[in-house]
Fold each of these.
Amino acid sequence: MTFAPQRRWRNLIDGEWRDGATGEHIVILNPASGEPIAEVARAMPQDVELAVAAARRAFERRAMLALTPAERGRLMFDIASKLRTMTEEIAELECLDNGKTLANGRNEVALTVRYLEYYGGMADKLEGRQIPLGDGLVDFTVHAPFGVSAQIVPWNGPLPVGARSVCCALVTGNTVVLKSPEDSPLSLIKFAEACVLAGVPAGAFNLICGYGHDTGAALAAHPGVDHIVFTGSVETGKRVLRAAAERVVPCVMELGGKSAAIVHADADLGLAASRAARGIFTHAGQICSAASRVLVHRSIYDAFVAAMVAEAQARRIGPGAEGAELGPLISGRQLDRVETLCSVGVAEGAVLACGGRRAARTAGYFMQPTVFRDVTPSMRIAQEEFFGPVVVALPFDTPQEAVDIANGTDYGLAAGVFTRDLSLALWTADRLVAGQVYVNDWWVGGVETPFGGAKRSGYGREKGQEALLGYVQTKNIGIRL
Ligand code: NAD
């Protein structure tokens, strides 16, 4: 790969590319080398003011609502086609600022294009109800936008996670201020370029890159914001919710996970191990719905752990740009966090079947793929999110015990069941507290299937037709004739 990204990047406010109020920049590091690759204008709370004001003006002049729903849909298709032409550049940027593999980077663009086309296609199909009230009266509902939607995105999948919220907001007539993640903002800047090229009205979509503690917090608390979509950790989510509560602003919260794959005694062991391994080692485990726990029937526990270790050891560690399958963690800070939690696991008495520490490399933030065995449900490593390539394996004896362990964390994002018995699969799926349940695979579904959390994993849904309903409020109009 010979690609060298542009050195300086800016924020998009009111249709113009701008530096931040203080002229400072955030240095973007390549997590595979620790080297700086670019600088992004640092947005400050003053820039939040400008961006929210631009979004407010765009909403007041009905920048999106003045378009027919079909025109809004076509606009999403136009953004998609501009984005598609940038596939290789974005894929390489995702390797460089995010540590993704090239294949994963290309998939992120394809996925984003799908979101744009899916919600573009729905723009003219969000219909209200006509409610019969009797003679002389006509009553119907409309889906009204909230106004200015503030969106805050984490670093692990900024392009699809950010773009799906932006397009749901725009097709429903809202306007947007999105704060991109400070560690990996570049792909969303390309998305903003595609929006400008496609003709998204100035101010309807504003993109700012800044740190969370000042700029993110200022955005969440801004009095000009009518709606919040937050994707990130539970702790930050609670802060955002406190700010939102002050002004009773509705939120969609997409938070963390500690998702369990249950492997019943009759499961196809090879299939279950390969799918569970894909579920935890893809993007080095930095996926909210990663299969970070495997609960395995005691009769096949040893064989399953051995299969997971073989899966872990088959993955080549290295930069995604060089074709390796297991890329780096996003930062030195994240690598320290994951490694420290591994040592907690060892101190708690869990046994390392493989991995457990950073990979022996001279540069970059690489973690060994790690499998813990002999883990008990109350251990911290069975309760806390690593957000790294670390899976904990717990044995169980009965299906009820498996469900109890799976449901026994604060989280409820995703879950999986492996069995050849359809009745047992459905019995288990019915009892799992999770927004998505996969049977005999991990990540069944996609853009079309509603995704979101139960318990501390959040509320509201992204993806699927359900997502659009999170961007509108029902207004009832009653007419006496
Ligand atoms: P994080 O909570 O640290 O940061 C997320 C975003 O919030 C960043 O843009 C950050 O700048 C911003 N932020 C930080 N402090 C803020 C504040 N006080 N006010 C407003 N914004 C603030 O999370 P992270 O470490 O970047 O991402 C990892 C977490 O995200 C994991 O817990 C993961 O499970 C979760 N996640 C969830 C989903 C989902 O769809 N459920 C998807 C991806 C990631």
Amino acid sequence: MRILLVEDERKVASFIARSLRENAYAVDVAETGEKGLELARENPYDLILLDIRLPGLSGIEVCRKLRQEEVETPIMMLTARNQVGQRVEGLDAGADDYLSKPFALAELQARVRALIRRGFSKSGAKLSFADLELDRHRRRVTRRSEPIPLTTKEFALLEFLLLRAPEAVTRSEIVEHVWDCHFDSETNLVEVYINRLRQKIDHNRPAKLIHTIRGVGYRLGLPE
Ligand code: CA
């Protein structure tokens, strides 16, 4: 899942971004409201984390503009402690939730998971298909209850395929939701990761779940 973080304080931004990346999210960081707005218009994010106090365009203004432009991405505002007025203003501007600074990373992660879930019809901590199960809270994947260790990127890719299963996803949808804006679209990284995932999920198993659809992309499901 891909997240936009708009935060002008570099230390805070890199701290939050690192924690999210460790949890398998792709993260783009914008240091100003203007840049955040630009990125949010260009990319289909699954969540936007928006600091209220930014130089230039404030978080409130960015949020209001995005909602006016009918960008429906879930937005979580980052507010200063004890600033009830800011929270109310943020929610009125169309934000879905807020988090007061300073916050514990565990709380940030929990709120992020909850908000991203709302954006998909498949909610809940566990995603499954046939004998494959992915636990989003514990970051665990099993097939027939047998644990399968995955890297954070492999996990993110599998999560996206499962959210859409058994429908097909295109290569560009994968790039948009699993990688950040530094992804070089000239590379064959998606293919490389799909192959690695296949090795781990399908190798030596009678029912293959990851399928290539020529000219379209990939599909997680039972063989046709
Ligand atoms: Ca700030």
